[in-house]
Amino acid sequence: MVSLKSLVSLSSRSAAVALLVWVVSVAVQTHTTNAQSCPTELTSLNVCAPFVVPGAAVANPSIDCCNALQSVHHDCLCSTLRIASRLPSQCNLPPLTCA
Predict the structure, then answer these.
(1) Which one of 2, 26, 52, 76 is least enclosed by Cβ atoms within 10 Å?
(2) Angle between the 74-90 and 4-43 helix axes, to the nearest 10 degrees?
(3) How far apart are CA 42 and CA 35, in angstroms?
(4) CB 28: neighbour CB atoms within 10 A?
(5) How many distinct structural domains can be found in the chain?
(6) Is residue 30 part of a domain?
(7) Does the pLDDT of residue 21 top 50, yes or no?
(8) Is residue 16 situated within a structural domain?
């Protein structure tokens, strides 16, 4: 017969494994959700185009631009900038240097 102690031990291990699986699945789901929302957040920055396009006549960003920028998650914006800065080397082009 299986002793009560071994059942409790087995139950504890099963609970620990179930908890670990749940934590990992929540982490993956959160990461996926954040990754899927990043393109949408970046699209909202289109209202900033009149300010960031070279030669634009608009000197200051609009309140809509500032609000859109504030709504973009820091990780999304930083990841995008990191990827954009690597593009020239991945396309076998010289690195960009900005003055």
Answers:
(1) 2
(2) 70
(3) 11
(4) 10
(5) 1
(6) no
(7) no
(8) no
Residue 2 lies in a domain: no
Residue that the structure tokens 């087995």 belong to: 10
What confidence category does residue 23 fall into, taking pLDDT thresholds of 50, 70 and 90? very low
Three-state DSSP state, 96:
coil
CA distances from 30 to 22, 25, 37 (A): 12, 8, 11
Whether residue 6 lies inside any domain: the answer is: no
Query: pLDDT tens for residues 52-97?
Result: 888 878 788 999 999 999 999 999 999 998 888 899 999 999 988 8
Q: What is the CATH number of the domain that holds 56?
A: 1.10.110
Q: Other CB atoms closer than 10 Å to residue 50's CB: what's the count? A: 13
Name the residue range of residue 44's domain.
36-98
Which tens digits make up the pLDDT trace of 30-54?
Answer: 444 455 689 988 999 999 988 888 8
Name the residue among 73, 86, 66 with its Cα closest to residue 36.
73
